[in-house]
Amino acid sequence: MFFFAIVFLRQEYVSLLLKVADQLPGLKPGVALPPTPEEAPRDAKGWFHKNLIDGYNPTERQWELTRAVQDWGPTRQLRCFQRLEHALNELAAAAAGNQHIISPRPGV
To answer: pLDDT digit string (tens) for 63-103?
Structure first.
């Protein structure tokens, strides 16, 4: 038996980084963080490219920036993160109980 889950972020992974951008190295001084990263800016990668001192290229910088985050707590406010966390908890419970799971459950 194998276990598999798919969770779609409303925008993209970088929207999670936007929520904790104040922790990232190389953020230009005085930059205001977007108040609703799940909704705007629509071009999160462009926002990072504009507001990081050395710009942003996901291939080169995403791993570095992800590792720089010390507190992912603020991302827990995002609905997309809550869905991801819920899916992982369901997947872990199914694996621990050696059971199949479908989520969301049909008819619920």
So the answer is: 999 999 999 999 888 888 888 888 888 888 888 888 887 77
Q: How many angstroms separate the first and last alpha carbons of the chain?
A: 26
Burial class (CB in 10 A: 0-12, 13-18, 19+), 14: buried
DSSP state of 15: H
Compute the CA torsion angle 6, 41, 73, 56 (nearest 10 deg).
90
Q: How far apart are CA 26 and CA 44, in angstroms?
A: 16
Which of 80, 73, 99, 82 minimizes the C-alpha distance to 3? Answer: 99
Identify whether the C-beta of residue 90 lies closer than 8 Å to the C-beta of residue 14: no
For the chain, the domain total comes to 1
Segments forming the whole domain that contains residue 67:
14-73
